[in-house]
Design brief:
Layout (H helix, E strand, L loop, with lengths): L10 H24 L1 H8 L6 H26 L1 H19 L4 H15 L2 H12 L5 H9 L1 H20 L1 H26 L16 H8 L1 H30 L5 H51 L7 H15 L3 H11 L5 H30 L2 H26 L3
Helix pairs in contact: 1-4, 1-5, 1-6, 1-7, 1-8, 1-9, 3-4, 3-5, 3-6, 3-15, 4-5, 4-6, 4-9, 6-7, 6-15, 7-12, 7-14, 8-9, 8-12, 10-11, 10-15, 11-12, 11-14, 11-15, 11-16, 12-13, 12-14, 12-16, 14-15, 15-16
Length: 403
């Protein structure tokens, strides 16, 4: 007897589980950065090594996202998501060792756990979600990323101050393990499309990327995401430093601004998914977001010491809604354009490009800001690639009639 394939109609149950998993792996990635000073002090290393930690995490994420198509097909999307949580938990366990040489492979393992989660959930949601609801559903699921960031920021620092950094890491590790159990009931009903005998080939690592590069619309979306992800990370990684060192905000106020940007991201991901589904379509929505990112970058870079706290918080929410709100619309578009049954593969290939943006754009932002002598100048110049994305997408809309 052949197992049934998951059908549309189970959208909200799948969404709830994938949202929780996304939030947990995001929290796993962001917990160490959230307690970086205390964590670095424990290891007797400079806080600047946080950059190496982030590079190792996203290097693992790139590799895992490229493998995700084969892994989803062989093991099923739910089982792969559970494995991702276990990799994150193992990586966090290694970071608890009193040696930087254990933290390094721990960071890479966290990335290996983080990388396949979005392709796996895209595979599940592409099957279970009606097309007219895809943008909203994918956007809600992607709120797991800023939700995970908010949880890391709200839970990890107080725990680190009260009980030490190891306590904060241990709590997140335990949450990942609990989330593994949360996904188990869906395995029997939503991993029935797996093909257990699917061979795992090294050459298959490039298949997702080749799929994306061979498809003009997917290639354009992936290239756009390279810039968008870079803008998102520049906002998250540099905002506190910028407000504190150049605008004389105290650290608590600067931290609140970063939290407000994450709140904006949660609101934006849901709002833009609804707008794409009901009004503008994916391409027009992404053009709008490109322009808003450019405007947010310029407005942030032109802030002066006289800027009021209320204005900075409002700007942080608006900038966050654009710079962190694009993911669901993007992923729904990738899943829609992918060949039938290959949403996970296409998402993995597209995300490998996205993660390269995470690695390269913030580094370039730092170099440009150093050369200009101001993070404000870096934010202003960050508007240029965002505007270029708007031009490219607008041209595609006019020439190709894309939705």
């Amino acid at each position: 007897m052949t197992a049934a394939t998951p059908k549309q109609g189970d959208t909200w149950r799948v969404l709830g589980v994938t949202l929780a998993i996304q939030a947990m792996v995001s929290m796993a990635v962001l917990t160490i950065p959230a307690i970086a000073p205390a964590f670095a002090e424990r290891l007797h290393v400079p806080v600047s090594l946080l950059g190496v930690f982030v590079v190792l995490v996203y290097s693992g994420a790139i590799l895992a996202s490229l493998m995700s198509g084969q892994l989803v097909r062989r093991f099923g999307a739910i089982r792969l998501s559970q494995a991702g949580l276990l990799f994150c938990a193992t990586g966090l366990l290694l970071t608890m060792a009193p040696s930087v040489w254990a933290v390094a492979p721990g960071a890479f393992l966290i990335g290996l756990g983080y990388g396949p989660i979005t392709p796996a959930s895209s595979h599940l949601l592409a099957i279970s979600t009606p097309a007219h609801r895809a943008g909203l559903v994918f956007s809600i699921k992607q709120t797991g990323v800023p939700v995970g960031g908010m949880l890391a920021g709200a839970i990890a620092p107080p725990l680190a101050l009260q009980a030490g950094p190891l306590a904060a890491v241990a709590v997140v590790l335990a949450a990942c393990l609990i989330c593994v159990l949360l996904g188990q009931p869906l395995h029997a009903t939503h991993d029935t499309d797996r093909v257990p005998g699917t061979p795992m080939r090294i050459g298959g690592l490039l298949r997702p990327l080749r799929l994306v590069l061979a498809h003009a619309a997917l290639r354009r979306l992936a290239t756009t995401s390279f810039v968008f992800s870079g803008v998102q990370l520049c906002l998250a990684a540099y905002l506190v430093t910028y407000l504190h060192t150049e605008l004389a905000f105290d650290l608590i106020s600067a931290g609140i601004a970063l939290s407000m940007a994450q709140v904006g991201g949660v609101i934006g991901r849901i709002m833009w998914g609804y707008v794409a589904d009901r009004f503008l379509g994916a391409t027009r929505t992404l053009i709008t977001l490109s322009l808003l990112m450019a405007g947010g970058s310029i407005a942030t870079g032109l802030l002066g010491e006289q800027a009021s706290f209320v204005w900075v918080m409002a700007l942080a929410v608006a900038f966050g809604a654009a710079a962190t709100g694009w993911n669901g619309v993007y992923l729904a578009a990738v899943a829609r354009l992918a060949p039938e049954g290959m949403a996970g593969t296409a998402t993995g290939g597209a995300l490998s490009v996205t993660f390269f943006g995470v690695l390269l754009v913030p580094a370039a932002f730092g170099l440009v800001s150093d050369a200009a002598g101001s993070l404000g100048a870096g934010y202003v110049l960050l508007a240029l690639p965002a505007l270029l994305c708007a031009v490219v997408l607008l041209r595609a809309l006019k020439l190709g009639g894309e939705r």
